[in-house]
Amino acid sequence: MEDKQETQSNVPSNRSKWHYYEVIGILLVLISLALLFFAPNSLSSLFDTIINEVKPIVVDVFLTGEVGIAIIVSVIMGRMLERLGFTDGLIRILVPIMKLFRINPSVIIPSVYNILGDINAAGQIAGPILVKAKATRDEQKIAVATMIQSPQSFATFVLGLIALAVFNINAFPLVILGIFLPIIVVPFILSKTIYRNTRSVSLGELPRFTPNTKFMNTIFSSAKEGTELLFLIIIPAVAVVFFFIGVLKYIGIWDPIESSLASILTLISIEPSTGIVSILAAPTLAVAQLADLATSIDPRLIVGSFILANSGLPLSVIFGQIPATWKETSDLHEREALVAAVVGLIIRVATACILGYLLTPFLVV
């Protein structure tokens, strides 16, 4: 009898309630029909606006321009350096410093790997290592915040160096102070302020990041990896962001948003147009635009722009990819990883502002 009642309860009722998405769907249908009747050209104008925003970036910059090729070449270069032991060498230099600060040395692994790799792989590889090394939750948060200080792809770093060369800016102090020094300073500052539950431990056996693959195999596989990075990650992400920019521009609210962001970025010594691209779309594209717009960009804003671009941006990485990745690979919940990433981003913006004001008078004539 109970089975019969349960079966009957599973039968859909004729008096089904409307869900919110059904109401929204009907409203969209009615709005679309009204637009087609009263303003038949509005939808086509919307698509034209979106296409005009997306096409120059996706096609002219990435597909037929030098930026796409530069991304693939930079990945090949990064994997070659990794194969030659660059990552392992840097880790073994920095590990004793972390022990001196009484911090689990594994916190610097995602940042160091991120310099030559990419931010998703850094989380997937470093998260389990931190857990295995018995890093506390605070130390894992330090690892996330410190990782934001490194470029989210080696392509960004290489294209940034090209941009600095165009402006005749010495890259050495910027690379040392803006990329390598934060890997040391940020864990120390956070361990004394926000994330204090740290402890000095000895890593019984440091992980090895130099692959065992043959050198030629590394070169060809890295070319494939660079192509996948371009077509499967960077181009889709950029297309989505500029799709929404096209929508906002059609509505008429993008210009005030852009001008407000530009004013804030200029105030903190960051070139506004490329800074917005770094924040919303792709730092790789931003540093490429720095070089292309050399004649129209104020060189005094280049230092801050380079530092900001060589970070864990864009915001889609901070708010989407990092929480999802670190939830699966570490002891952190999504919210903990997100807050740590935001802390790292705040530190990165402050670093860009400070170095922009302090170093620019010495590097830019």
UniProtKB/TrEMBL annotation:
Residue ranges annotated as transmembrane are 20-39, 59-77, 142-165, 171-190, 229-253, 273-294, 301-322, 337-359
Q: Which UniProt keywords apply?
A: Membrane, Transmembrane, Transmembrane helix
Q: Which domain of life is it from?
A: Bacteria
**Presence of keyword Transmembrane:** yes
Q: Does the keyword Cell membrane apply?
A: no
Quote the protein name from its UniProt record.
Nucleoside transporter/FeoB GTPase Gate domain-containing protein
Species for this entry: Virgibacillus necropolis
